[in-house]
Amino acid sequence: MKKLLQSYLVLFIPAGLIIALDQWTKFLLRSNLAVGETWSPWPWLAPYARVVHWYNTGVAFGMFQDKSILFLILSLLVSLAIIVYFPRVPASEWALRTALCMQLGGALGNAIDRIRFGHVIDFISVGNFPVFNVADSSITIGVFVLLLGIWLQERHTRQPEQEKSQ
Fold first, then answer.
1. Which of 22, 66, 113, 122 is catalytic?
2. Residues 88-99: pLDDT tens digits?
3. Is 136 an active-site residue?
4. What are the pLDDT digits (tens) for 154-165?
5. Is 122 one of the catalytic residues?
């Protein structure tokens, strides 16, 4: 029981911090900009990076608009799967554990928006890239961490094989 509790603390503390940062930044946005309004601290920066109050009823890159309920259900199912699966992941699997923490935080951050507002609030606008938020970034970085972990593990597994063949 103690090991299970420790495992869940390892999952919920980082995920909770991600959710808190995501919701705090969205609160600041809602408090200071109207929907569609843009802010950039320096005019020269505006073409490259800016803050814009936007919302999304779909998923990443604005795909599948007006399916907020479907994606709310999907994000809750994925979150539940992460919560059930996480204690089974060995502590040595740092990349998978980190990725799952980030993906849980991101999924629940956006789920909170879908429950409260019926859509996800986005605000980070870089160049011509679709507008995104902290939760989206967390999910994306979690995927990269997972891929990096898989690559490192595969590389580590291949090294002894190569040493044996020499």
1. 122
2. 999 999 999 999
3. yes
4. 888 887 666 666
5. yes
